[in-house]
Amino acid sequence: MRKILVVNSKGGCGKTTVATNLAVALASRGDDVALADADRQKSSLSWVKRRPKGLAPIEALNWTKEDSIGDKDKKLDAIVIDGPGGLRSELARNLIAEATDIVVPVLASAFDWDATLKFLDGISDIKRVRKGKADIYVVANRINRRSTQVADLEHTFSDKGYPLLCRISDRVLYARHAAAGSGVFDYSDARSHEIRGQWHPLLQAVD
Ligand SMILES: Nc1ncnc2c1ncn2[C@@H]1O[C@H](COP(=O)(O)OP(=O)(O)O)[C@@H](O)[C@H]1O
Ligand SMILES: [Mg+2]
């Protein structure tokens, strides 16, 4: 079973957006998926509550407390974890130490880069990551077609040894899905075909 942790000490970078859409992508292809919420704001748990009945089922797990963490259900194919804000907490370190895949969203705003690079260096000290048992994937989020910052982001992160795996566009449709308890993989409409394609490198990586 994969344990895919979406985490970054920087708030607002898209952890919940990436976690919910990733859970949908896996569930909609028939995987048994749980979405574990380890963030105090419990945004992922609320999102599951809003999820319409007819869509691919996603089990919700409340992992906001240290003692609630656990893969009680080994029959699952994957647990996607919406990670806590800070890295210093015991909870964050334990989750990182247990994850098979670590997904780190970053915005194309220079204010976010230093914090995210510090965070990446911080997690590379954790045993499982150091031993290469957990892979780290950096996902550039809220990319604007007209912005030139993504090229700078690309260079800055590659130079430090963290090449970007995917680039997710800034689209109002993500906010709409967030409100509706759904994700871009719940519907196969032609209009968002290109948007779904942006997730493929990440889906391949966690396979
Ligand atoms: N790719 C995107 N395009 C448009 N809006 C986005 C995108 N990713 C995130 N958002 C919006 O940005 C805000 C913060 O995202 P969220 O996933 O809640 O971040 P976090 O969980 O890291 O705090 C939310 O309002 C969300 O809808
Ligand atoms: Mg969140």
From TrEMBL:
Read off the CDD domains from this record. Answer: ParAB_family
Matches recorded under Pfam families: CbiA
Residues in CobQ/CobB/MinD/ParA nucleotide binding domain copies: 4-180
The protein in question is named: ParA family protein
Q: Record's superkingdom?
A: Bacteria
Q: What is the lineage of its organism?
A: Bacteria, Pseudomonadati, Pseudomonadota, Alphaproteobacteria, Hyphomicrobiales
What InterPro entries has UniProt attached to this entry?
CobQ/CobB/MinD/ParA_Nub-bd_dom, DNA_Partitioning_ATPase, P-loop_NTPase
